[in-house]
Please model this.
Amino acid sequence: MSESLPPSLATGGSVPPGPDDRTPLARTADDGGHGTAAQAAAGTGRTGRRGLLHGGVGRNLGLVVALVALCVVGVVTGGDRFASLDNVMTILRLAAVIGVLSIGMTFVITGGGIDLSVGSVLGLASIWASTVATQTMAEDVHWVVMVLTALAVGTAAGLVNGVLIAYGKVVAFIATLAMMVAARGLAEMIANRQTQIVDVDTFLDAVRGDVLGIPKIVWVFVLVAVAGWLLLNRTTFGRRTLAVGGNPEAARLAGIKVRRHTMYLYALAGLTAGIAAVMMLGRTGSGSSTHGMLYELDAIAAVVVGGTLLAGGRGTIIGTVLGVVLFSTLTNVFIINNLSTSAQSVAKGVIIVAAVLLQQRLAARSRGA
Amino acid sequence: MSAHRSGPRRRLVQAGAIAAGLTLLVGCTSNAPAEEDDSSQEQDDGATSANDDSGDTVTIGFSAPAADHGWMGAITSSARAEAEKYDDVELLVAEGTNDVNLQISQVEQFINDGVDAIVLLPFDGAALTDVATRAMEEGIVVVNVDREFSSPFAARTTILGDNYGMGVSAGTYICEQLGGDEDAVVAEIAGIDSLPLTQDRSQGFADALSDCGLEVENRVAADFTVQGGQAAAANLLQAAPQIDALWNHDDDQGVGVLAAIEEAGRDEFIMVGGAGSRSVMESIQAGDSVLQATVIYPSTQAADGIRLARLIAQDKALSDLVEVEVPRTIQLYAPVVTADNVEQYLPTAFE
Model:
């Protein structure tokens, strides 16, 4: 560790130190009375976690209310077309791919960073896992080869991001922007800019279809979300993530290897992009360099709407899941009502702004308390 | 055309009145632009037959990529306009998206809704094949427009433009205009290179040129946008100080291409456009620029898709063919529009 690493550099510095930086500290102090960043960093577990839940419940409640309101609109305008099990599954299937990306994004943002490359990395992983070479190998050996390829490519791309940001001291926004452009380009080069059709039936059988009446990709989303929740809320890794995002300098003083941890966070985001690529391969039966176009923005939107602080230091997996489901329900209701995607984009924008305004108000209140 | 379908709603009798009111409100708002659409898609219907007589109501789901391009915008608006001509067609439009994940979801919603037919212009044919196949298995008539699925089981009928033919038409026209000058410099500004349609167009162009001993000397790819066309053309003109003929694949990006040509003050060559936009046809008509011709890529093919879907769902056939059934594949022609015949094509030009 360097001696006096400025906080903004340690986490990639995508976020200028602003008033929000104080929020995690302020809240920890509220909860425990004597909480310090160092204690939070070392994982004074109980107080930190209680603070998270305390802050999360109200915000999640808002999201639940919004979701319920949206569902009411759906039922009123769509009737049985909206309120059917088939339609619920359609909503969840739509949510699943971006949902998985958003879980990884939650970690990166909670850790005070940002990852603009996940959509492109998804595309790259989908291409790499569906090249003739990979598919031939999958036919000969096992379909898992394709899955492992996608996961490896995603994780490797994430690691490159992480190394650049943590050790190369490249600002996260720029490093991942570069990866976003480069990964898309590499995908186009490998695929020769063509859509690669997946012919490995064993793979398609394995990733398509339902288990217990629920589509497999929805199961994957659920599993990733549960794993993410456990990782963030029940492990040292999660507490370190909060500490690094909240106040990297304090985290460093508390003995956390901030740079290594930051690197892990981006690798994790890459891994989720790899998982999402596998889901996309199954859903579309093809790998394409256009897969995942602009998904990074959808993921960031879902994470922010979910209540994760863009400045880092606070994150909520449940909020992220609700955010993702909120957006995909919105899309569904719009389609049912024959409304244009342009209007939908406007609605999305309004929701994002409303969520951030709410977030700021709550943050201000917790400072004032 | 209301957004609201008369589905069973027994459980919601009470909410029904409110629902209808709200839906009407929402529906009206959404349809306002479509209604005031001074559609230029009126076509001469040709032979009269019983096909246009009102039959069983057909619910058609329609989905296409985002209208981020004039041609694509016209695809959706002409499909809407066509559906409105028939009182037995109820059109559900899931509006444009370039996200295959979302488009799959739209088709899944149509399947849930139990529509009679789906007219689908997929963002990526291969990616939508699985869900289209599922729709077919549910007994829904799937009409594939423009970008082909990767499996023959995924659609009942496919309507295709002729991308290769566009290249051939453009190349043949340029061959005629250059009159056997084998040293002529021919340039090409392509669309998005990753799309098979661009590869087909370029292949057709190259094949037609080689027929008269020419080849493409300078080729750049743009991205179907005005700014992309401007940037690509500026670079191309810089690289090629002397050009005799230029084919630009797409009239939307052509706006940018023309801007770049004007900026460079070049007029020593003839230019041929592609797709057939209104502005390009008007400047061909005016004859005051390097633009002398354009090759049509019909933006009314989704409207054809709506008609065919209706016919198939009503067990009718094409009245001008002897066949009992609607054909499996229909490929459209790519005519060259010049000052001589532009009048004929202006009505179907896209904005």
Q: What stands out?
A: Residues 46-78 of chain A form the longest helix (33 residues). Residues 1-55 of chain A have pLDDT under 50 and may be disordered.
